[in-house]
Design brief:
alpha+beta; 5-stranded mixed beta sheet; 34% strand; 195 residues; single chain; 2 domains
């Protein structure tokens, strides 16, 4: 094969490659129908760390960051907060205060083993009625919990000298506040009068 025929075959291969890309309909430069995102249609890889971080933020917001609005308090009934913090909520608060997730395998790893959680209610009270924007007259119900987490703290360090550190009597105290609102007054009558 001579040099011109090699050059011709290279050009022919390039033209066939570009032609096959343009006929698939998936390449951003050739799309003529519908919306055209140009270079933004090419997928960008996202690290698992950022994906898990976003999923954890959504989980936290969906379950624990919003205050529910409950019906009015009835006279003569015990006014007690009904829901202590869940184990998941306590462990997420502990992870936010002292992160364990992450680390580098075989270099530095940190684990919590044999976790036991003790929850104590330290306060349960209701604020006087006031008007909240977009809600109306309501009372805020506060419940404060002291959560003591007992666990075995294990740290495995792999460099420069491999060793393991164990603290079998580790403990942390996390304070969790549960606040929610109770409507005040004749809520059903107010809704009927608006209709």
């Amino acid at each position: 094969m001579s040099l011109p025929s090699k050059f011709t075959s290279a050009i022919l291969t390039t033209v066939i490659g570009i032609g096959s890309l343009s006929t698939t309909g998936c390449f951003w430069g050739v799309t003529t129908l519908g919306p055209n995102l140009l270079p933004f249609s090419i997928p960008v890889p996202v690290t698992p760390y950022l994906q898990k971080k976003k999923e954890d933020e959504f989980w936290q917001h969906e379950r624990y960051d919003r205050a529910p609005i409950l019906g009015p308090l009835t006279s003569g009934a015990d006014i007690v907060a009904l829901d202590p913090p869940s184990d998941d909520e306590v462990m997420r608060a502990l992870e936010k205060a002292q992160p364990v997730q992450g680390g580098f395998p075989f270099l530095h790893e940190h684990n919590r083993n044999d976790v036991r959680i003790v929850k104590e209610k330290i306060a349960d009270y209701i604020d006087p009625p006031r008007v909240y924007p977009l809600i109306g007259p309501a009372q805020q119900h506060h419940a404060h919990y002291k959560c003591t987490v007992y666990y075995e703290d294990v740290r495995r360090i792999g460099w420069p000298f491999p060793h393991t550190l164990k603290d079998e009597d580790a403990r942390e105290v996390i304070y969790v506040d549960h606040n929610h609102l109770h409507m005040v007054g004749n809520v059903e009558g107010a809704i009927e009068s608006e209709l």
